[in-house]
Amino acid sequence: MASGNRVDLDGNPIKPITICMIGAGGFIGSHLCEKLMAETPHKVLALDVYNDKIKHLLEPDSLPWADRIQFHRLNIKNDSRLESLIRMADLTINLAAICTPADYNTRPLDTIYSNFIDAIPVVKYCSGNNKRLIHFSTCEVYGKTIGSFLPKDSPLRQDPAYYVLSEDSSPCIFGPIEKQRWSYACAKQLIERLIYAEGAENGLDFTIVRPFNWIGPRMDFIPGIDGPSEGVPRVLACFSNNLLRHEPLKLVDGGQSQRTFIYIKDAIEAVLLMIENPARANGHIFNVGNPNNEVTVKQLAEMMTEVYAKVTGEPSLEKPTIDVSSEEFYGVGYDDSDKRIPDMTIINKQLGWNPKTSLWDLLESTLTYQHRTYAEAIKQATAKPAAS
Ligand code: NAD
Ligand code: UDP
After folding, report:
1. Average pLDDT estimate for 271-278
2. Which of 48, 213, 288 to mutate to test the pocket of ligand 1 (most atoms within 8 A of CB)?
3. ipTM here
4. How far is CA 202 from the centre of its chain?
5. Cα 76 from Cα 73, distance rounded (Å)
6. Any idea which residues carry the catalytic annotation?
7. pTM for the whole structure
8. 149 C-beta closer than 6 A to ligand 1
9. How far is the CA of 230 from the centre of ligand 1 (A)?
10. Which position among 16, 41, 86, 168 has the lowest Cβ density within 10 Å, counted as fewest Cβ atoms?
């Protein structure tokens, strides 16, 4: 653990604080807890309904940080302990959410409740008790780019003014209500507006984070191994599952949508800077992504296939991808963001942060982890039962 002589970006000593982390048992939460335990003196009250992804930080009791992390199994929908836990902490970080696209159009009510209604008490308790809040929103609040509405052959589509997503100037462009995909983005947008208004009217100290496709080990689940067989996780886990099972990777509507992927460990560095530099982070909305790692989903599938063959030594399939319609894959009401390039001006100016890891490198370490963690379990799950 780092000693007490750590300093913030302005050279002031960093005092140890207590953080109430809601959704600490998820993908981002697990990496943030790991970082806070290994490199800082801060304490974490870790709240979640699950703790499988942070078990290695909680047990055994002899771990060097054992007295700095405490797990509280609770559902924030209906647990009266929430306010007292927020009151015990200096800072609350809210990560809790339903955030897998397969749920947005198939479970829109749960999606809206989780991302808006259930987050309201957290905002209210922080505001009412004068506690700082870091709230996790999403890059999906931008929706579609302005450029996506231009004719396909318009040269303006190449102009960054029509696609770069900027916190303080880009509009939020969603599809019609019957495209229930946008239930998540819309709920996240409204909670952002509520937090912003609490800041403006009641003086809430807040920071809003908009993650742009953070990926890495422990993201989501592998269907039929550590999650439901019929479950549809986010694209990294979908493609990992296909590779582990030697199946072609499914390209939704041809895989033409574009994304920028950032390594979880780079992104966590940005969150730590926000935690430890409140004067620079409060009142801001931050894009956190890697504009240099842009690919189409098809290119991602091709690169993952190549990287997986390299890390396992196994040959790739002759036909490594297949096309599937979005209706077949996600059901009625799916829609997609066309392109997501984060403007990095604000985070650069306020926190001096930049992502480091290339897409190839992050896929190499992530797929090495996926293979080591799941290959044997998949082999056993798919092995034919011995003839009796
Ligand atoms: P995740 O699903 O792995 O983690 C969310 C955690 O919240 C889970 O462990 C879940 O059990 C917990 N949770 C949900 N509802 C809860 C409740 N009612 N009570 C207690 N715990 C509850 O997702 P993640 O990728 O770690 O995302 C964290 C946050 O970041 C979310 O708000 C998500 O919308 C946002 N985000 C993430 C990404 C990304 O790239 N990973 C992109 C955009 C936005
Ligand atoms: N996608 C795909 N095949 C899959 C899973 C996802 O082609 O097996 C596509 C999906 O349609 C979207 C992109 O990959 O265009 C990213 O999906 P993800 O689940 O990561 O969520 P999003 O970035 O849309 O929030």
Report:
1. 98
2. 48
3. 0.99
4. 29
5. 10
6. 184
7. 0.98
8. no
9. 20
10. 168
